[in-house]
Amino acid sequence: MEPRNKPLKIVFITPQGRKEEDSHHRPIFSMSIGTLVTITPKHHHIELVDEIWGDLIDYGGDYDLVGITVRSLNAHRSYDIADEFMRRGTTVILGGPHPSLNYDEAIEHCSSVVCGEAENLWETVLQDLSRGTLKSRYNAGDFPPVDNPPGLDYERLFTLSKRDRVDVRKPIPIFLSRGCPYECSFCCTPELTDKQYRIQTPQAVVAQIEAARRTWFRETSHEKRPWFQFCDDNIAINKEKTWEILTALKECNILFSTYCSINLLEDPRTVRLLVDAGCMMVLVGFESLNPRAQQYYGKESVNIIDKFKRIIRQCRKAGLCIQANFVVNPAIDTPEDMDAILRFVRESRVVMPAFTIITPFPGTKLFKEYKEKKLIVDEEWDNYTCQNLVVRAEHQDPEQFHLYFVKTYCGMYTWPNIILRVLSNPYKFLTFYTSLRFRQWCRDYYEHLRAGTWEHELPQNVRQNMPRKSLEAYICSQQQDAGLVQDFRQQVLVAKNRPVPKDKKHVPDRGTGKTDDLKSRDKPLLQ
């Protein structure tokens, strides 16, 4: 039997990209860190640092190993952290999607790079480090395949975490399955998992849910069920086994959200099982309403709008909210196509619509294709947020394209659209809360404009001569002033053709705690 390697002092770091959002939309830990904590032998000492939650890094800590999980979005921040530890003589290992697909870039900043899934190679890495024989690269393809990914050790994660127990407002991450057999050109999953698809047993999923509930969840008087976020790459690949898990989840008394293919939602039995199991919301990649774009993404392109609306209505009737994700591509989509998306969002009343610009992540097939065609115009990884134009707009003015993108996104979160959304969908608090969070994005963006830092939020190819006044004017015109919840309730009364109380209402002035008359607050929210 292999002797146990000496105990190591390890810190796992989740960096926050320079343009990455705060913890409002984030689960309490990343799945990558959860996996590393689970598979690291328990005789090692582990610390966790998550910059997204405001944790501070101790560069002077006497660590044997610094492990950093890296995405393109936070690559430069990850390299800054790694460089500082390396300068101090500390061993640094980088892993995650970005280093796995960009080894030559990553190894310049660390001692070693882990490429791909870590379950079957991590013990070897730790043994080599203990013996002083650490290699510069560990590739999952050189080890046995990960046929049965272990479930997360929620108790150990909670013990190590700096987070407190959470109520239903914050999701607890979990996975039912891992990997995807398909080869979408924009996705890095096939490259990282070698197209393997593995799904847990119902018993294993239930056991993890109970452990997570016991250690992480805090009941409130309003809600005694925890909210789980299923982080599967594709929940719909094995329908029969997914049905078995959903049937088992019905007895767990939980709420959850997940990603899902629109085609899976055509099946009434699947929708019913999702709702009965506690699913509040599914994120669906509608991608585009443009038939040419649908063909480009390899999806059905005939009568898609009618199909989408029908499925949304059926799911809503069954008690399931649909979150829609749309992608615009300057090589295919025009302002008229963005107008069509905005109309669809208004008419279909989907919850929490997400709007992104096509972003070929480095290492994917799409990136290689765009690179060969000289269509990549920005390789500043901080800009790979899916909100910036990093590809060439050959047939359109890039400034105007990006401006229209912002205009359309803001238009999705005007008060009339939020009101219709809340009135039409189940889980009204969820719909209202998430709409406010996305509406806040518009305000935050405008704050960058006011602070004079807005230029740095744009990619290199549109950073010059951006029409500041036109963008300010649009956002201000779209975002009418409101007292958030109080004013929202008054607008709901109007929408329902019910009289608004005539007595004077006072609302807090955000940021000051003061109050003023609603009737006098007629200046734009973002002004």
Main attributes of the structure:
6-stranded parallel beta sheet, alpha/beta, globular, 19 helices
Summarize the structure in words.
With 527 residues, the protein is an alpha/beta fold. Helix content is 38%, strand content 14%. It has 19 helices and 16 strands. It has helices at residues 31-39, 75-87, 97-101, 103-106, 122-131, 154-160, 189-193, 202-216, 239-249, 268-277, 291-296, 304-318, 335-348, 365-372, 398-411, 415-424, 428-451, 468-478, 485-495; strands at residues 9-14, 45-50, 65-69, 92-95, 112-115, 137-139, 172-174, 177-178, 198-199, 227-230, 255-260, 279-287, 321-328, 351-357, 506-508, 515-517. The strands form four sheets. Strands 2-1-3-4-5-6 form a six-stranded parallel β-sheet, sandwiched between helices. The longest helix has 24 residues, at 428-451. It is globular and about 60 Å long. It starts with 8 loop residues before the first strand and ends in a 10-residue tail after the last strand. Mean pLDDT is 82; it is low at 452-489 and 500-527.
